[in-house]
From TrEMBL, chain A:
Gene3D superfamilies: Spore Coat Polysaccharide Biosynthesis Protein SpsA, Chain A. Belongs to the glycosyltransferase 6 family. This is Histo-blood group ABO system transferase 1-like. Pfam families: Glyco_transf_6. Keywords: Glycosyltransferase, Membrane, Signal-anchor, Transferase, Transmembrane, Transmembrane helix. The lineage of its organism: Eukaryota, Metazoa, Chordata, Craniata, Vertebrata. It comes from the Eukaryota. Its cofactor is Mn(2+). It is a single-pass type II membrane protein. It is found in: Membrane. The chain crosses the membrane at residues 12-32. Its main location: membrane.
From TrEMBL, chain B:
CDD domains: Glyco_transf_6 (cd02515). GO terms for molecular function: transferase activity. The chain crosses the membrane at residues 24-44. This is Histo-blood group ABO system transferase isoform X1. The keyword Lipid metabolism does not apply. It comes from Mesocricetus auratus (Golden hamster). The gene is LOC110343791. Signal peptide: none annotated. SUPFAM superfamilies: Nucleotide-diphospho-sugar transferases. It is a single-pass type II membrane protein. It is found in: Membrane. Gene3D superfamilies: Spore Coat Polysaccharide Biosynthesis Protein SpsA, Chain A. InterPro entries: Glyco_trans_6, Nucleotide-diphossugar_trans.
Amino acid sequence: MDLRGRPKCCSLHLGILPLIVVALVFFGYGFVSHRSQELGDSEAVTRVAVGELDVQEVVALSRMVYAQPKALTPSRKDVLVLTPWLAPIIWEGTFNIDILNEQFRLQNTTVGLTVFAIKKFVVFLKLFLETAEQQFMVGHKVIYYVFTDHPADVPQVPLGAGRKLVVLTVRNYTRWQDVSMHRMEMISRFSEQRFLHEVDYLVCADVDMKFSDHVGVEILSALFGTLHPGFYSRSREAFTYERRPKSQAYIPWDEGDFYYMGAFFGGSVWEVYHLTKACHQAMVEDKANGIEAVWHDESYLNKYLLHHKPTKVLSPEYMWDQQLLGWPSIMKKLRYVAVPKNHQAIRN
Amino acid sequence: MLRWWMAGAGAEELRLGRPKRCTIHLGILPLIVFALVFFGYGFGSHRSQELGDSEAVTRMVYAQPKVLTPSRKDVLVLTPWLAPIIWEGTFNIDILNEQFRLQNTTVGLTVFAIKKYVVFLKLFLETAEQQFMVGHKVIYYVFTDCPADVPQVPLGAGRKLVVLTVRNYTRWQDVSMHRMEMISRFSEQRFLHEVDYLVCADVDMKFSDHVGVEILSALFGTLHPGFYSSSREAFTYERRPESQAYIPWDEGDFYYMGAFFGGSVVEVYHLTKACHQAIVQDMANGIEAVWHDESHLNKYLLHHKPTKVLSPEYMWDQQLLGWPSIMKKLRYVAVPKNHQAIRN
């Protein structure tokens, strides 16, 4: 560059030009890498479209010995194990947990579990956390995110190695419906601010429950919902979707795959962020139009999962109420079950 | 994440009273800002996981899936590591087509037509035009040593053919095995920038029924039609420990066919690169795996579990195996050939 005879005010611009070029290169690299996919080692992140919307990695496993899968022998003959869009439906017998554990450990997977203990619901935390310690993602890194308005009442539960608990203090709402629905807003906000940097997957669960059997990495995928135990054998006309066209959660009679339960959903942080943000925005819209969906956040969840198909679906093993529904032979395990509660007393 | 650079870009302010010679620099600055914004958008979108990933499927009407009614009662449709095994009846192609079209998916199909094998290209391509990824963007990558002999086959909209001229090998085993090297090299150089998924197929075949987006995923293999009902001890894995393709008697999920595999470009790159390196290593150690590239493919897929597995509907030989009731469709089938004549 020839700087002679050039007015001083131009040198600042010339000085900036190289910086701008560097910036262009830096951003340009990002752009080009985006269109192309990253090479690298076998741990390279693969951006996979649609079927698996999350970060998909095919990792190298070491030698494992287990029974051979037989192509002519279905794992379950009594239930559907694959949705029409090829998402696995997780039932006992469909998966080998040793293979899955190996795959997820090789990626050093960290799972966040969000739970809301607002007002009197703090009383459920102890059993929830103690049973999670026994059954939830054992052997993997876990962060419990406990949202509460009573941080002092969060019990001290001993945690295993690689597991920690974070208390997030939030406001409460007077109506239990609002408490329930605002979970969507809070999860989306904290996903962006915090969860993105701390965990790979988020599991969003109700607190008035306990883990009674294994709940592990078999559930993890870009986006998952859980079959509501009251509707898995019903026709779609019986699903308690929101049926008023005015609501953002509206689903017509001739649409709908499953009825998902609002109490247990999750996925990659990004997908959970999208889901919770969309649900929150839908609720805000409905509120402005003077309507509240019949089953609150669950109605919006169902609308979202109709149009954004989950990449895994959990069977009702993952969401059960033994008091109401007993123990049918189709349930080989009851993994996450309702804790008896006095609805009126606890909701105030 | 997009917000910070936009704020910076918007904060540019032009000063008054500057000398004329500076105006060209100031004129360029908005262009540079624009370019930054343009590239920055790409960067922002890449670094974060695509916010738009789960594209919304619009209203669709179809029969309700029934939880208590398995789609197939006669076959396994899910591997123990939760990869779908694709059989007729397991999928609704309308939902899948919608999902993949929303992503503007482009599929590359690689096929090798070396020496006399060019004669198979016409039927392969004509039937692919009828059956393979119809409605989606397709690029055929035809590897050949006889580019002049590649037939002119009319292609549908959004579909094109690229001829890649490569060397041949004397031994048919080497022709077969070097496909791994060539695919890995072109994946890095070219396919990465042109397609989302790669499907790597043998040429002496034809498409006889639908082969579509239901097969697409990070990494897929296809069940060999001769072994899907066999015990693992009967699989013709490489059994000599000296070979890189060695698999012990007590290991193995399935026996995959070398003639039809694929996945995302990155995963196919890793697979083909690894197989090629294993083949080179074996060569240096004076050993050649019993079923060549197929042996190495099976070793790779044992340790890198595929995310989808295709049933033998996707790899059949009606002459040898007939049409059992378990096969609801025969999608990709062998074309009769005189092995000795064609391999020279």
